[in-house]
Amino acid sequence: MADQGSLFDEKTLAQAASDPAARAEALRREIEHHTYLYYALDAPEISDAAFDSLMRELREIEAAHPELIDPTSPTQRVGGYVGEQFAPVRHARRMYSLDNAMDLGELDAWMDRVVEALGSLPPMCCELKIDGSSIALSYDARSGGSLVRAATRGDGTTGEDVTANMRTVKDVPLRLRAEALGKVRTAPAAGDEEPEPLELRGEVYMPKASFDHLNAAAEQNGRAPFANPRNAAAGSLRQKDPHVTASRDLSTFMYAVADDGMLDVAGQWELLEWLREAGFHVNPDVALCTTREEVRSFCERAIERRGALPYEIDGVVVKVNSFARQQAMGFTARAPRWAIAFKFPPEEKTTLLRDITVQVGRTGVLTPVAELEPVVVAGSTVARATLHNLDEVHRKDVRVGDTVIVRKAGDVIPEVLGPVASLRPADARPWAMPDACPSCSSPVIREEGEVAFRCISIDCPAQAQERLLHWASRGALDIDGMGEEIVSRLVEAGRLTDVADYYSLDEVELASLDMGRLNKDGEPIRLGHTVAKKLVDAIDASRGRAFARVLFGLGMRHVGKTTAEALAAAYRSMDALSQAGEEELGCVEGIGPKIAHSVWVFLRTPDNAAVIERLRAAGVTMADDAQAAGAEVPQTLAGLTFVLTGSLVESGLTRDEAGARLKAMGAKVSGSVSKKTSFVVAGEAAGSKYDKAVSLGVPVLTESQLLEIYETGRAPEVD
Ligand code: AMP
Q1: 130 alpha carbon to ligand 1 midpoint, in Å?
Q2: Among the listed residues 251, 318, 323, the one whose alpha carbon sits nearest the alpha carbon of residue 288
Q3: Which pTM value belongs to this model?
Q4: Could you report the per-residue pLDDT of 423-440, keeping only the tens digit for each?
């Protein structure tokens, strides 16, 4: 291959000893260059061993001269702990979703709309739709193009700051290649405002092989496997410890720029070229199509090749190529009009129905579950699928021993469609609901007019276990890591009977929990200190969750998330709620007599009241804290713009957290200082923004003054 600017020459080597700073910089450029060849061009020039050797030398220089360490150095990918929460990031430009075309007919209808809007069919860029998590990477073009932030899409308006974790993803450049900087427009957009960083967007995903590897390891360690590579990628991105993310082997494909005005490129095709040039990993499977036929055949070919790709895709994205034409078409509230996601048809497979088992839910409902010969459908292994209820089993007429058709479409939960009648074994019998609960053997009843069969025993261990899991689940008290296996071991060990028992678990006891399996030396596997510590921390964190989540977590019959929120908003505390009469409860917006009765009975049942008192004693939230519940916070800072700089050591808040609190009170928070800035808050080691504030005469506040604002809700007077 032609010389790509390699620095392996004697002159540079000779410089090394005398000038470690120059050598370190040369090594960084060299390493970045080989990373670019490897990921962006897929054309490595040196062996892994030679690459490692360059890294080793750079590490050695940096160890000997720590003052030379730079955050963009390839040695600095894995940094410190993320902390309790990922700070919210407001996207400067909305991260849109895409409208879907569910078949070729809908794709054609979209192309009709494009022709209608633009007069004729323009060139269109077809790309694979990567099934991962959206990511926005921001680069500061002024500082030589270093990565300053990575954020998830979140709800499109506000995502989460995952910078520390994204830095560990090896194909993400920590700075843009110098060759690409020439096309970045850094001139301030208006007046004295400093330019926003250049935000590039794409997808972070987990390759299929890494996913299989991760799940095999999870299984070996007794952890629950991830359902599919998409969940694994999203989960890996939200790790509190970047070392864990670094070990997960994530990759990216980048394909968009938030503001195309910031790049000197005219369309999507050129953008992809620029992204590659800048050092990003860009999917090579793209086509610039000029006819409907070409677009259609790209989609059809993608369906055929889907299984052979080393990563998951769930469709094809077709985009009007020219940015000017994109602008002419614009956006709906949800998605661009100039792009469409052609979704693959749902995948169907046949497999053996080995058994129909019955699962007991937390309210005693018995649900038949199809136990299947494991089969890979639309990217994930399906071994079980709910059959919902007895009527459904009969309607579909599925019997144990049948060969059944299983369907899954992308996100959708796998579904058993029905049997292949001709393959039914002669002795297959229709399935019947058992008369007794499979967990506690109590009689099973079906209430008048109800579809569901129910175990009505209050002592049913299966129900108890489901209630415990529900309390710990994401939407409820969110005790991270408290999954099915650990809960069932704790129940068996007699340490968990009701939800209040969670708060008396201690680390030593948890660490020695017998997981019911033996290691290769024949000794029982125990939970261990690391996991135990994490669980205790997660239990502690759950004490502070909002009151509505506590109400939801208690698992009262008919009280889902929305109902729990309505009750919390209406009564604000457990005391007030417990005193409410049944009729009064029924008058709350969204609460009918059935729910009112269920809540009233639940709170008056002595066992439940006792559990609630123990939860209260353990410090679990029993009242609505106005701010936590998202109630109106007075907008006393409306009209003011704050800029934060330096680190906030007194409060320990990150800048994003501090900013979020100001925003909650109505303030705007900006990343750069201008004459319009009302206040600059300077923490420790404040940088150039402080200098700029002083030069523009913008008032500078200390961290203590900021804390005072939080307390009083008022900004200091300035004259
Ligand atoms: P959806 O979430 O189904 O509305 O689809 C929109 C999402 O598809 C975007 O937010 C991206 O995360 C993702 N996506 C994957 N590949 C691409 C691509 N090549 N171009 C645009 N979006 C993509």
Answers
A1: 7
A2: 318
A3: 0.60
A4: 999 999 999 999 999 999
